[in-house]
Amino acid sequence: MTSLFSRLKADCTADWVAYTDHAFVRAMGDGTLPEAAFRDYLVQDYLFLIQFARAYALAIYKGRSLAEMREGFQGLKAILDVEMDLHVRMCAGWGLTAHDLESAAEKGATIAYTRFVLDTGNAGDLLDLYVALAPCMIGYGEIGARLAADSGPLTHEENPYAEWINEYASIAYQELTQSTIENLDTLAAGMMTEARYPRLLKLFSSATRLEAEFWQMGLDEAR
Amino acid sequence: MTSLFSRLKADCTADWVAYTDHAFVRAMGDGTLPEAAFRDYLVQDYLFLIQFARAYALAIYKGRSLAEMREGFQGLKAILDVEMDLHVRMCAGWGLTAHDLESAAEKGATIAYTRFVLDTGNAGDLLDLYVALAPCMIGYGEIGARLAADSGPLTHEENPYAEWINEYASIAYQELTQSTIENLDTLAAGMMTEARYPRLLKLFSSATRLEAEFWQMGLDEAR
Amino acid sequence: MTSLFSRLKADCTADWVAYTDHAFVRAMGDGTLPEAAFRDYLVQDYLFLIQFARAYALAIYKGRSLAEMREGFQGLKAILDVEMDLHVRMCAGWGLTAHDLESAAEKGATIAYTRFVLDTGNAGDLLDLYVALAPCMIGYGEIGARLAADSGPLTHEENPYAEWINEYASIAYQELTQSTIENLDTLAAGMMTEARYPRLLKLFSSATRLEAEFWQMGLDEAR
Amino acid sequence: MTSLFSRLKADCTADWVAYTDHAFVRAMGDGTLPEAAFRDYLVQDYLFLIQFARAYALAIYKGRSLAEMREGFQGLKAILDVEMDLHVRMCAGWGLTAHDLESAAEKGATIAYTRFVLDTGNAGDLLDLYVALAPCMIGYGEIGARLAADSGPLTHEENPYAEWINEYASIAYQELTQSTIENLDTLAAGMMTEARYPRLLKLFSSATRLEAEFWQMGLDEAR
Questions:
Q1: How far is CA C50 from the centre of its chain?
Q2: Residue C113 sits in which domain range?
């Protein structure tokens, strides 16, 4: 059976490719990405994570059962207890201090995607919220896996972006990706109608385009 | 075809009857309701209307199209531009001043139903919100029509509650009831699944029980 | 300096006493509370906790900094990772199964307080939300401490409600109470104005009255 | 006494000038703006207005009194009953049909500002929401007044953008601008603290920068 995610992705292929095979991504893959682009990305991604934690908190608030609340709680814990620290550590490796991260201003593309997700979640139901989150959660897994498969395991000497690639290609992240896909199907089993699908596709493709603009923001910075 | 409303009502008959044929309602119908009970009800119903206006504002915020936003806007306009004034006028007829209304404290039963609707609306989608609103909008129409049919047209001399009964038995209100039923079906056509039905029924029956407790609050006051 | 909590409590003394010295509380203290009342309370309090977890999730969503988000996260973790289990265990001691808890219907008084908090939080800011939560968090600590002080340490043989009393009189809970009071002051330092105080007092006293009605619900059940 | 708006504007002068004296604005003023840029702007501004109606609906939901609810209701009515029609008519004059407007996709800059306002409103209180709305409501009045003052009354033959300029320079719109400034002060009188000001300034300057990016989006389209 096709997952809801596979169906959404297949129905906006051009947007999905423009995001997951973005010039920024390819340049990480072959190690040619300008450092300024990556550093800008890291800072904005830190600000992005804070908003994503808020989105998972919203998912808990919107849970209609303890099980749904706990599902959102796992996502929130992963961000606040694990990913934020990982991120700060990766940033430190690139010379970015906690102060650099906290004092940076959010750029338009960061605001656009994150607030789109949050407003979608407030206005709609849990399925709307998770569909808007999906391009990020699942797309990063897909990108990490592909870049790692293209090159084999990398060291920092071979590619300065090896740590990023290895992180998202890791078994732990791939499992998270898979469980995100399954959680969407669980929700869809109860709440999805064919009449609703076009709107979900619109949400998903909008979120996917906003992700592509997030990559582009990094490249624009390095021009 | 059965409307969603008819199905919900049929599936919680006992709750529905306990609300629409509550002792408070019957006592309005035969004119024996203690005046203290009615005056208490009028004050709490005024506070209730303010929260219902907030619920319709929320419905506009949650609208996914201009058409859905305008549907909520009609409901909001009806409350803020028409019903509030009607209510204040009816209250004046019972000697309640604007100051009486504004300085009154909301009682538990008023808080319970209104905040249940508002939180349901924030946590869920537009269908959840309108299902939670339905027992009020549609139930009042059903009660008004039945009381009027039981007694025929009434004057204030025959029954001190004639104005209330005539208001909700009026063609204008009956049309509003009908359009509320149809709006639920329009939403359900796009967003309803069988898997979702048990939860909608739980929402609807909870809201119906909270409406019955709202009547009971008036009776308790007059003891 | 007076804490915001002390000021609010002093300005609605009658409501606060009606809640913290409610007949239900006194009957727990001397062990005369009918078992049926306590069992009803335990079931409703379980449903209450689920809604309180949602309120803390909302506090995270509304956090304006990582520090504020982490403050709400601690509260959420305490409920989902600790208190729910404690509660289920205490319920088991009274013969209530997980199924009893999950299949129970929320009563009006449970709905009234919890949804009042959630709607207050959605409509207002973080200070409004925490003020609405305060009577529960802080009041239970005050009740636990007073009942324990009145009787000294209790065994289950001396008082069947000893476990409840000891739990809320515990150092861990007393510290939570204290940090809740301090968190209110931290928020108030940044967001409080004298013009705002009357509305905060209204929120606080409404929430306090709804807590008293929550106790009363248990007594009514046992009649 | 300085209004809150004047203070905010004075404290982010560079952002405010970059928005209100943007190249797009100057090119409207001297009639040199490429038609493609204006048409793109008109389409996105239509989508923008829909989201602004949602923001005013949120302001009603968040109103803590009937007076505050009615304040938001006036804004909502102005958009849904008047401005949307005006806008559709202006668009028709530029050959844009209702279908063009409704089928257009929101661009990143449109999403960024509108969802920033909506999320700010959901997370914060009424003052946060109105501060985030202020650059739009008040800035357009300031721009319209200045462009009209620079050139005197214009006809369509003299400047193809005369209708736009005259609309926002009109007495009706200038009065709306003034009442928006006053409403901010009314809210601030009750809810503003000095400790809160830096965050309000951050909100205001972010919203102002997002408005500048909205103009830039039109220019980028016409390249």
A1: 12
A2: 4-222
